[in-house]
Amino acid sequence: MKELVGKSVQELRALLGGKAVSAREVLAAHRQHIDSVEPELQAFNCLTEDLAARQAARVDKLIADGEVLPPLAGVPIALKDNICVPGYPTTCSSRILESYRPPYQATVAERLQEAGAIFVGKTNLDEFAMGSSTENSGFKPTRNPWNTAMVPGGSSGGSAVAVASGMSVIALGSDTGGSIRQPASFCGVAGMKPTYGRVSRFGLVAFASSLDQIGPLGRCLEDVAITLSVISGHDGKDSTSLSLPVPEYVKELTGDVEGLRIGVISELTGQGMDAEVLESVELAARQLGQLGAGVEEVSLPATRHALAVYYLIATAEASANLARYDGVKYGYRHRQAEDLLSMYRASRQEGFGVEVKRRIMLGTYALSSGYYDAYYKKAQQVRRLIKEEFDRAFARFDLLVCPTSPTVAFEFGARTGDPLQMYLSDIATIPVNLAGLPGISIPCGFGKSGLPIGLQLIGPTLGDAQVLRAAHAFEQATEFHKKRSPVLSAA
Fold first, then answer.
1. Which residues have CB under 8 Å from 374's CB, separation 6+?
2. Does the predicted model carry a pTM greater than 0.70?
3. Catalytic hit among 179, 229, 347, 425
4. Which of 93, 94, 133, 155 is the catalytic position?
5. Active-site annotation holds for 185
6. Are residues 320 and 259 both part of a single domain?
7. Could you tell me if 213 and 309 lie in one domain?
8. pLDDT per residue as tens digits for the range 107-161
9. Do the beta carbons of residue 22 and residue 150 sit within 8 Å?
């Protein structure tokens, strides 16, 4: 049973299709592994045991009936706990939603279920996806499987840990400013933020609606590509969803980057980046060149302003989106309030954590009378400049590369007292969200401490396929993705 842990999607499909194992056995092996390592890693907010058992039984019936298996049949998958699954908690790792059970299903969860996936649980995150270390969870910290003294990144830390430790084959996260790619980098897995609008956001609890995007994490590019094909596509329930055909992303994994023009972003490969990160990224760029791509440096000066722009736009949208949590319709309510206004104040004061309150206040200030033009409007104008700068770069290049994070994973508590230092963890990923572009983080090396380093590849709008193509070519030419975390190696 233990040998089923750590398998890829295609490896499990081959075993299931050949009737060497059942979906129930695959689920049991992963549940046993979860029981073994979850107490230390704390990746999950809840396990969806009854649902997983029903899903496994459906797959086994398909096998018994001789049916063609759907693309994710019998594959254990974890969902970030801001993606709605009816009847199970969707807490966003916040006390204000601790008792919330959604009555509806997220579109991505519906598509995964139709593809035969088995949902093992809902993963921990920074509260309302606001953070870069999963230390802002209202419930518990999640620990990095490469070194449990280190953070796993955030906000999708639980999802990254579930994959890197082998508790799930794939996981879904959400990415508003790097929340899939940065924890993927810290945990040594692949994590993809698709083009904005490529994947439906229906059933994703909103943080910043013009920036949020759901995407997959996996231990190999093929798993990521299969999952992205399943969850992508138009959805009438999401007005920002793109009505365009979805490529078969797996067919794009040719291993060929011959002739691709790749630009290395100079502003994101210099000051502020750790030397060991820069060295790994430079070697990775050189490797892409040896595979036949043309690699040269490119300057995107407006990206220097991305952090400031993001923390005005994202907090402004969060201020509006989180106004609904007032103790009236659902979520936590303070019961001893004397009147409606004091109930609002007490419910939000007690239900939200420090970082969420900080961002709500920042956003409310940016939107307030007398400051809107100076802050929010100006930020939107600079956002347009950043997008136009990317567009000009993609007139010359097919892809852009840079580090995913300036550092490897850091120790718990190292940055919680300095919000700016924490925010700088996403300096290389935020520009991608502001421009609505596809980006991926893949392992490209290891630091002196043995912790993973991530390479970020960025594509033009709807360039998801060529991002996956180049990432896969690098993966196949190197061994970084084959190195497993100590937790998974011991399984």
1. none
2. yes
3. 179
4. 155
5. no
6. no
7. no
8. 999 999 999 999 999 999 999 999 999 999 999 999 999 999 999 999 999 999 9
9. no
